[in-house]
Amino acid sequence: MSTQAPVAPAPAEGTGAATIAEATTFEPVIIGFTCNWCSYRAADLAGTARTKYPPNVRLIRLMCSGRLDPTFVLKAFSEGADAVLVSGCHPGECHYIEQNYKALRRFQLLSRTIQALGIEPGRLQLVWASAAEGVRLAGEIARVTEEVRELGPLNWPAGEIVDIDNVTLEAAWEATGGDAGGPPETPGGANPQHAAESAEAAR
Ligand code: FES
User: Fold this and answer.
1) Is 88 near ligand 1, meaning CB less than 6 Å away?
2) Is 96 in the pocket of ligand 1 (CB under 6 A)?
3) How far is residue 18 CA from its own chain's centroid?
4) Res 7: pLDDT
5) Residues 83, 32 share a domain
């Protein structure tokens, strides 16, 4: 008697609604920066209580939301994240007194910065969650995942923006509204035309 497990027949190519749905469902990658004392524990609680939330979020634990360096967010976007979720203790409940207020200020600045870089504000979200709010955090993760799914993949061309190796000095000068006199002849040096204008104005 054979002990081999039966092998399921391979599905025929291009058939079945499930195959099409699988191919078209976009699964966003979301990086979640969580506070050790509240939101990370809330996520842990959700797991312990078997409360389901989408596996799209990859949690990174910080000791406090105030530890969030703005570059962490930009690095996440530049390395392929479709969204970033920042989560910390409720205002007034930070274990480091008021660091989450600093996180809130950084979040607001980052939100404006990413919009200036062409990234939709919905791709950066802030959620307060206490250690006891596992179910609520799970719901918020599901909401953010759905919103980002609707936005679609980010594919942020960070390399083109951040990589300055191929940017000429002239192009950078024009991009920043430099005048027809052109950039300084030597990096860090004064534009000769500006120097002449200054001398003229001083007379
Ligand atoms: S300790 Fe949780 S946000 Fe500061």
Assistant:
1) yes
2) yes
3) 31
4) 43
5) yes
Range of the domain at 113: 26-158
- In angstroms, rounded to a whole number, what is the distance separating the alpha carbons of residues 110 and 35? 18
E strand spans, the chain? 30-35, 57-62, 83-88, 124-128
Q: Using alpha carbons, list the distances in angstroms from residue 14 to 10, 21, 26, 27, 155.
A: 12, 11, 18, 21, 27
Kindly state whether residues 175 and 147 are assigned to the same domain. no
Cα(64)–Cα(92) distance, rounded to whole angstroms?
Answer: 13
User: Which of 38, 87, 137 maximizes ligand 1 atoms within 8 Å of its Cβ, making it the mutation to test the pocket?
Assistant: 38
Distance 110 CA to ligand 1 centre (A): 19
- Residue 43 included in any domain: yes
More confident residue, 29 or 16: 29
pLDDT (average), residues 153-168: 63
| Residue 179: pLDDT band with limits 50, 70, 90 | low
Q: Is residue 67 part of a domain?
A: yes
CB 77 within 8 A of CB 114: yes
SS3 (DSSP) at 33: strand
> What is the dihedral sign for C-alpha 106, 108, 111, 117?
negative
Q: What is the pTM of this model?
A: 0.69
